[in-house]
Structures are given as C-alpha cells and as structure tokens.
Amino acid sequence: MDNDQFEKRMEFLKKSYDRVPSSFDPDEVFKHIDEEKVPQSNKKKSSNRGFRQNLTIWAMGIASMFIIGIIGTGYVLDQKQKSEEEIIQSPVTDEHIESLLKRYEEERENRREMLKLDEVFFKHYASYADSTIKLLENESYLEMVRAGTEKTPLEETYNRAIDELKLPSEMLNDLRANSLQNDERGSIAFLGEYRRKVQMLIEIYDQILKENKEAIDAYEVGPHVDKAEIMSLSSKSFPEQLQNIIGTMRDQSIRLHTEKYSGEIRTRHNNYYFFYSDLAFNLHHHTDAYIQMMVEEPYMYGPILQYPLNEMAYKLGRMEQTLINVEQDQSLYPVLESYYLTIFNDLVKGSEYTKIFDEDGVLLPDYQDVWRGLAATGDARPLAYVMQPIVKEMEASGWRESKSWDSLSYDALKDAIVLYREGQLEYYMYGERPDFKSETIQFPNESFWNEVQELYSDFKKAHDKSVLKGASPIHVLGVFNYANEMDDPETMFHLLNENATYSEYGEIELNDYVKNWRKSFSHFRNATEARFDQNTVYRSQVKFHSHVSFTGSDTEIQMIFNEDGIWEVNTRYMETLPSYLMFPERGFKDILNFGEYTYQSVNLPDFEMKYLRGAPPLDIVGVYFYGANRGNYELQYKLFFQGDGSEVVDKETFLENPEKYSQSPSYEDGMYTKASFQGLEQDENGNYQGVATLIVDTELYPELPSEMKFHMIWTEEGWRVKFNPFEQPMR
Predict the structure, then answer these.
(1) What predicted TM-score, i.e. pTM, was given to this entire model?
(2) What torsion do the CA atoms of 381, 387, 391, 394 make, to the nearest 10 degrees?
(3) Which residue from 163, 183, 188, 345 puts its CA 20 to 30 A from 431's CA?
(4) Which parts of the chain span the membrane according to its record (predicted)?
C-alpha cells in the first residue's frame, strides 16, 4: 500500500473519533435507512448457546454505535459546511456496486480463513466492516450519493470497510512500512483501532476457550509448569476449533494466559518484545503508556493489584507522562485515566482487600517507600502535587496520620491533571514563575568583560551572593571564568551551586576544592556568541534549571536559579590546561596496541583529524610509531603539528625521505619498553608543549641512551607530534 493510500486510511481513523455528532436522534436517522434482515447462519448452533448469545449482544452493541457514527457522518453534517466543500462525484451503477460488494466478500472470506474462525464467530469480528459495507446496499444512502448531497465516494466507503476488516497483524505491517512516529493524532487513532480489534479477538478466543473448557480441564500438566505455555506448544491434541485459534492467535499479538488466582486459561495481548517494539518505535512517544496498557492490562484481578508495589508506582509515572501530554480522545484516554486513578487510590488509600497500615496504625514500610517515590520528583507533576503534603505530614507523625490524606478524594489526581494541562499546577505547588529574559552577547566584547570584572570585585570581598541578584546567567558564568583567569579558586567555589559541590565521595569542602584546583581553559574560549534562552528554563521545586550555550565552541554550561533568585554555576567541569597533564609510565606494547586501534580509525576514508580531540597524548605516540611500523608515512605527516612556530616541510618533500624527519634513530620493534608523558608550559608562540619520555631497552640497543624525549604540541584538535620530534622543543 503506497503512502497516499495509507494516509487516507489513517485520516479516516482520525475522523472516526472526531465526527460522531454530540447529539442527534438515532431513530430519526434510521428512518432514512431501509430495514435489512441479517441472514441467519446455517451452521449448527453450539451447545453453549448462552455464551454465544452474550457475545452476539456485545458485538451488536458495538456495531450499532459504530453505524450510528457512520450514518451520522453522512446525514447529520452541518449543511453550511457541506455547501462550502467540494462535492466528489462517483459513478453509481448497479454493476459498480455489485463489483464492490463482491470484492468485499472475497476480502472478508480471506480474513476469516486467516483467523480460521467459523462464520458464527467471525461475524462478530467483522461487525464494524459489515455495517459499513451495508451502506452500499441502502437505497437512501445511494440516492444521496447520486444526488451529490453525500460527498463520500463509494470507493471510500468500500475502503473503510476493508480497513475495518484488516487483522491486527496487517495493521502492524502497515505501521512498519509507514511510521507514525511524528504524528500524535495518527498514533492515537491507530492504537485505538488496533486495541479494539485485539480486544474483540480476545473476547472471541475467550468464548471459544469456554466452549472447550472440558477438553482444557482434561489436559493435565505438571504442578510447576505453566499450562498456557504447554498448550501453545501442543495444540494438536485439542478439538479442531481450539487448535485453530491456538495456531493463529500469535500472529495477531495474542497469547494464552493462565490466570494467577483461578488458574483459568484465558487470552491476553502478547507481551513479547518484538510486538511491543514495533509499536513503540513507530508511534509518537506521547502514546507510550497506551502501548504499555495494551500489553499489561488488566492491572488488577478483581480488586487486587497484579504487579508488585514498586512496579505499580513506576507504571503510574509512565501513565502520567502520557495523560499530561497526549491529545485527549474518547477511546484510549478515558481507559488509561481510569487505570491511573484506580491504581493510585489502591496504593494510597487501600481497601478492604489492600491493607496498608499495620495493627498499630503505622503505614507499612513497603508503602512508605512507594509514597516517597511518588512524591520525589522535583517537577510540577500531578503525583508530586498530591503526594508531597501527604508524605510530609506522615513523616512528621511517624507515618500514622495526615490531614491531607484524610481529605484526599478519589478524583484528586484527575483534578491535578486538569491544573497541569491548563499550566497552573506549577503555580499551585511552588508559586509564581519569575519573568526570565533571553539574552545574547556577541564577542569580542570589552564592555561585557568590564561589567564582569566589576561584579567579580564586588563579590570577591565577602562572597555574598546577594551581590549577584539581578545578574544574568551569562554574567555570573563570566565571573566564574574571570576568577579562573585570576587564579582564584575560592571565589569559583562560592559561585557553584550545592549540586556541583558533591562528588561520589560526598560533599566537597572548600579546602579540598582549592587544593585540587588546576587552572583551566575559559568556557568563553573561541566563542563568538553566548546565549541564554528563557524557553530552556525548567522548574525543579523552588529552583530553576537552564544553561548558557556558546557559538564557536559548541558547549552548554548548566546553570541553576536558586530559591533566593540568584544564578549559580551547576558544573565543576572545566578543561584543564595542557600544562597540567601527566600520564604515568605504561608498557610500550600496550601503547602500540591502542595505537593500532586508533590507526584503523584514522585510515577510514571519512575520518577527520578533529576526531582525535580527546585522544590522550600517549595514544598519539602509539599511532605514530605503529604507522612507522606499517610504512604509512602519509599518516605520520597528518600527525605533525603545523601551526605557528612549526618548521614542518611540505608533504612531497617529507615523503621523498621520511626517515630523515620522522624519527632518529629509525624505529624498530622492541626498541622501547615503557613511556610516560608530562605537559609543559606555553612557549613563546603561545603553544602548549609536552614531552613523552620513551624508555629504551639498552640490552638490545646499547648504543642508545636509556631515555629518549619525544616532543609534542597541543592544538584545538588534540595533541600533535612536533616535526623532528626527538629534537629540542621549539624556541
């Protein structure tokens, strides 16, 4: 199916949720419809007539609602809208109609055979499609088409019916070929239709299981074996009707399932990863909880939660993420919302089946952990809004009582979602949001740095952060970097947010920070522009998070607006000056092994030398000598420093006699046993130099000194080898 056709079909699914009128008289509508008699099946009736009769009533109810929606589309459209829309003409001949009806019957029979269902059951699955195609047999409808008052072509009605016939497996194939990852409405419409079809098949399959209960009960398995799984592997021993559904249900994302408490064999949506991933990777991310719901529902066995407490809390968070972001529809949203409220109230209020307090009236430890988790998020979210006051009061009372818990209503979360969707929840939780202003500063900018120096001088006096009140995040970050230039780590420490003064070992004290501080490159280095965008600010309780971004250096520095209304730096990371770099001795074979790995990358046709930006200097040493071993002097030439102060010759001259320039003496296997590296200060050209000390195997090479000094230069694209690397550093 091509993209245009798929889009048309998906558009129909969208419209099917939007176009049913809010109110009209079904009886009045049906006066325009010729009464049709549904032919009775000639097949022998099942002995379990009651079960099938219930299924028939269920399917007819669904079909009735659906046909009302379809007819409502044709008969109850606003007339002004009709007059303004283009009328699509379709030929309406008996031959054409008969052709469409015949094609429909062929398509219908094909699906019935794919499912291996008898007509009694299949007609329930096909009820939507059968209702749609019957419009082509209705004279009132056809007269409207002929008169041009019904704009829908017959072919579109036919295509609707075929789409409604499609099996879940066919829908998944269409989705794989035509992803809806960027289409939220289309994703919701797809999932609503997909879930409806899967659930209809589950109802049918469960009915067949009931009719074959005697054969299922007679099938014995070991006490520690899942009966449903074994049945799926040995279906040939069952009656044909049961064999058929066991053989086909997997293709429709359905599996046999053993009920946890009753032991009854039922069917459920398949939870295999590849079914889930097909949906998750091809549908909009806002619908994630809808997908999870189809795989995991029902979440309760009667009044009892079927998953562990911590899992349920996690699932609640996933549900909330969808409910606060997704466009609401009348199919999936109410179902997910109902699960969300039911699970939450069971976890927080308990029931006669769920005891959450011990005999002394103290909340059970497992529930204490779950409640803390629900309240823990720093974002303004419905769960946090409802749970934070409850947890605070409970903790204060030794987990015995809370006025907020006492007054908690069943719909409290639903009300909180409304506040969130209206953009009011953040205000209710944390108060008003400051009016942040975006800012862009171009560089070079003498005026900016003068302002920064003044702020630095005022702040350095007592490290009183109130001095910075009103300063933009770019200016505060500027003060932090100016303190670095002034070799003032103490001032830098006081500009950090408390989050940045922790490590894996706990809180970092001022003395430790100062002791371990090393001067670093400025965040503003190479920047042509610094930007703060008010739209990037997000709230975490009473604090706000954002960043300053740079053009020219392509970095983002995290910032926090604290509860006192002052911007703080939220990262300790700065790139240490190359002069501080030191790498202890490593075995030279190990260095060559890393060099081989880097060598393979550098030799790739699309490799750019800037990719070596973060490579340690000893890795560059390794690839240099590994290239010499392979006779790859072109690669060696790429590794030479060619900036200010370099005496490198042109490439052609170098390649004519590479050994003259690349090293002295010529490198041989086993010449060096170990190597270390030490960064040096800047030279007169402003270059950061470094030296790798190579330890010579003097037993094999007694004519050489015990150490050889291999000189290197730091560049913005990483460490490079000094031309004539064994000579003295450049002057």
Answers:
(1) 0.62
(2) 160
(3) 345
(4) 55-77
